[in-house]
Write the structure tokens for this entry.
Amino acid sequence: MASLATKAQMKTWWFFGYERTTKEGIVADIKALKDAGFAGVVYYDQNHAKDARSNGAEEGFSSEWWQHIKFAAQEAKRADMSFEINISNGYVAGGTWIDASHAMQRVVSADTIISSAGHQRFVMPHISGRDGYVKDIAVLAIPCRKDGLMRHITAQYPAKGKGRNGAMQIPGESETFMGAKFHAMPDIGTLQVSDDSLSWRDVVTLENMYSSQGGYYTRTNAFPATRGKYWRINYKGNLRLKNWHVGDEALVDRWQEKAALHSDFMEERCHVAYSADEMIDPESIIDLTERLGDDGYVEWEVPEGQWRIIRFASVLTGARTKHGRQNLLGYECDKLSREAAELHWNSYAQVIIDSLNTLGQRLVDGVALDSHEGGSQNWTPWMLEEFKQRRGYDLQPYLPVLAGFVVESQEKTEAVLRDLRMTISDCMRDNYYATFQRKAAENGLHFTAQAIGNALCITGDAISVKAAVEKPQGEFWAYQQTGAYDVKDCSSAAHLYGKKIASAEAMTDAEYQHSPLDLKRVADIAFSMGAQEFVVCATPHIPDSRAVRYVAGREYAINRSNPQWENFKPIWQEINKSMDMLRKGKAAPDVLIFLGDDVPVKTLTHRLPKNIDGLDWDVCTGDALQNRISATADGLLTTPDTILYKALIIEEGVYISPESQRKIEQLRSAGVRVLRDGASVVRPLQIAEGRESVVHTHRIVDGKDVFFIANITTEPVTIRYSFEGKKKRHQLHLQPGESLFVAHPCKEKHN
């Protein structure tokens, strides 16, 4: 395997499939990239054509396709450039080889009420699934009660706007959720009740539901037990709910999100306290799974009382690959299954690797995996086994919580749902990403992955999952002129888990309107957040030498047809120099911010602690806090790789598990500063003037404190600064887009 330290130069995703590939175009693409200072390409069949076949695009795995990918690999090698492949045809990991049993799945339930005691033979409600795939999980009987009081409303929502999970977090000041292209939308309306249809009283506010990749748009809102004859929704605008109904069951508020059918960040919105007789005693649940026949009937000696019989089954989410060669598009593979990950790898990546590496030379250097945007998943055929192994108890008796019911207590129900979400995240790390990492290593290849990726549309931990991959990758887009915290999540994971390089999908969707200064600005911000490798998204294959700006469905303007192509070359050279320097030594962040133990989780701008401006900071979740962090003799935090932090800052309002709470107390007892904000932390680089115009990051290189500093404004700036513990002031004059490194001997604690 080639050293990760070699060729600290930019790479690019090389997009194919919009139209017919040509050898002439491949030669021209490689020459242009090599001359511009790029060190490698990632072959990626991704296109945004309405009908690529009508453009002459060849089919995947056809003889012509094989000729072209082999030629592309050989041409890259001839130019002394690395050649990597994307892990899948199109986006993101799946294809025609993924059958229903290895595709993404979710839990569904259906129930019937039995009121007569004695021997009964009854049919369970029918459950339908995409492509006919329905796999029964369990049949459980729970006692039910009818008292005429309503406790929830369930409805299908007209999802609108940018989902919170998919909105890239950008620096800024806000008390409420913010993110790129996210706009807060007004509430849909209010559920109201009346006894006479004349006088109405409010019951619960119905918030808007935002769109999400692969979204699940059914929601339950719980409310205190309420009696009334008439029910209505008082709408505020034009949006209307579908198939809404009120019910008498005591259900968890917004349980669909807590059960990971829909990925959103856990926040307390409406707390309803249920009494003991409204909740289900686990001792009263009767397991009828073995009584379910192939014909869908259940035979049972029904006890006295009224019983709700719930059938639980798994069905397909329907998530499919996209933007690839049409003949190979298919289901996304199960993100929680080791077996499904291996099936996918062996059916696509391994086929290419074996074919290209049998041509007398080693042509493939690595494999890349884009971010997951295929929607949420909360089940796999092995979920019951995975859950018991990881959480230490059996999920089956608590399955009613996956239909929203409150079992044992509200605290226990929330704990089970939280354990389910954590199991989903752990399975993604250990069964999906770790499997791909293992397969890459077996082939002697590098593996770069956006695990999970900024668009957190599946429930997971955006920091700890990156521990499974050799090169974690974040992303930042050309339009995000103030940066993106997905890069910060990635570099934090690299620091915490001992990764040599924090990669970044770079300058995504750069358009022809973007100037060299625009791209230098976002590049420097990404460097200040810890990125050390840029992989441009993307450079389209151009099949000829046309002089007009090439558009392959989307602009992807970092290509040889761009009139500014020559003007970009000095920018790429500066970026490569910075990248080389930022791979030396080790990171020197100031503080570690704890994001809590619940999932889904990533850095959220509005939740960040106050007074952290001017600090270099990393974020962590419970996994790293418990397993990768310890205290030094002088009260600092350290990783096994001796990355040091001056303090631990805990975000307000986060869930802290008992395990993390014990670790925090241990650290505090060892003299570690445990804070709620960064006001008292001394800045190693103290900028007295011009702070608002620059970004910086800090590394320790050869016994020196080295600071990368960049002017991200469109005007020249003079900054005056000093180093921690030093009175002497220094002065720098930086032109727009200019960046440089300053250094001074570091303190003993860093040695």
Q: What stands out?
A: The CA atoms of residues 5 and 224 lie 60 Å apart. The two ends are 30 Å apart (CA to CA).
